[in-house]
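WARN retry 2 of 3 for item q-0093 after timeout on previous attempt; input resubmitted unchanged.
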Amino acid sequence: MKILLAEDEQSLARAIVKILEKFNYTAEAVYNGEDALAYLEAGDYDAAILDIMMPKLDGITVLKRLRAKGI
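OK item q-0093 returned
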């Protein structure tokens, strides 16, 4: 399972990615909402973990835009 993590606190993001990888998930991290939206539109992810309060775009806005596009 491939997961995108969107979290603006980089140390927390690294820790969460390590935990996910320990449980055999493939995980990538981005640090703002614009990058999260771009990665999710272009990539082939099975799931996304979105921080609600991120720079540029918040997680709720990212989710709404993805849903509007049918992703």
